[in-house]
């Protein structure tokens, strides 16, 4: 969907030696790697461990966009070790394989992809992946999908609190909300209005090596 934005830049990207990979139906200009064709042609047999196992867990696993807290958004290096550590995120906040996690955060940020999707893989939980957050449909989605855990960025909770009151707002299975940036006044309003949902506030940075968890509420 975003290839049209990149296409005018292809000549300069080629000059700088930047590879462009696209997931989706082509055709694409020369020099652009169509990943879907490669995936369709790939063998389902797992390669030997020495092919895919990193030599050093501190080597770069991927680059991910920061949210711009310390300046403009930029690509930050994430090591294999940090990626593996993200597998335990939901376990640390009290979720389990029985949970259904609602995730509407962008996957080009660490919170959505590594903590969210990878965190679900780490505990074997079900992930309800939403393309776009809708405050007006949130509780209907939770009921329809059997959601028990909600991963937020603080503003999402404010959007929910600012919605007009509706019948059935407290008839849901949500037991845990986890995320960052929830203001104390919104925190109180959220629990008073939507019921005794446990909230675990966390704080970390893509480039940092320390994460804080508010277990006590």
From TrEMBL:
The keyword Chloroplast does not apply. The chain crosses the membrane at residues 107-129. Gene3D superfamilies: N-terminal domain of ligase-like. One of its GO terms (molecular function) is long-chain fatty acid-CoA ligase activity. InterPro entries: AMP-binding_CS, AMP-dep_synth/lig_dom, ANL_N_sf. Keywords: Ligase, Lipid metabolism, Membrane, Transmembrane, Transmembrane helix. It catalyses: tetracosanoate + ATP + CoA = tetracosanoyl-CoA + AMP + diphosphate; a very long-chain fatty acid + ATP + CoA = a very long-chain fatty acyl-CoA + AMP + diphosphate. The keyword Membrane applies. Residues 47-211 form the AMP-dependent synthetase/ligase domain. One of its GO terms (cellular component) is plasma membrane. PANTHER family: LONG-CHAIN FATTY ACID TRANSPORT PROTEIN, LONG-CHAIN FATTY ACID TRANSPORT PROTEIN 3. Belongs to the ATP-dependent AMP-binding enzyme family. This is Long-chain-fatty-acid--CoA ligase.
């Amino acid at each position: 969907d975003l290839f049209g934005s990149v296409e005018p830049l292809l000549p300069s990207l080629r000059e700088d030696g930047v590879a462009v990979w696209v997931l989706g139906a082509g055709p694409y200009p020369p020099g652009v790697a169509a990943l879907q064709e490669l995936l369709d042609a790939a063998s389902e047999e797992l390669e030997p461990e020495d092919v895919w196992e990193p030599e050093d867990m501190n080597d770069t696993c991927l680059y991910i966009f920061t949210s711009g807290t310390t300046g403009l958004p930029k690509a930050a290096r994430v090591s294999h070790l940090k990626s593996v550590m993200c597998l335990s995120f939901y376990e640390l906040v009290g979720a389990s394989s029985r949970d259904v996690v609602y995730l509407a955060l962008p996957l080009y940020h660490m919170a959505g992809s590594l903590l969210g999707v990878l965190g679900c893989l780490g505990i074997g939980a079900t992930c309800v992946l939403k393309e776009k957050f809708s405050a007006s449909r949130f509780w209907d989605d939770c009921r329809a999908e059997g959601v028990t855990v909600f991963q937020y960025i603080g503003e999402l909770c404010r959007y929910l609190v600012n919605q007009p009151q509706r019948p059935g707002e407290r008839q849901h299975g949500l037991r845990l909300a986890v995320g960052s940036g929830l203001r104390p006044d919104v925190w109180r309003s959220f629990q008073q209005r939507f019921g005794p949902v446990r909230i675990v506030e966390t704080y970390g940075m893509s480039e940092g090596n320390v994460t804080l968890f508010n277990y006590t509420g």
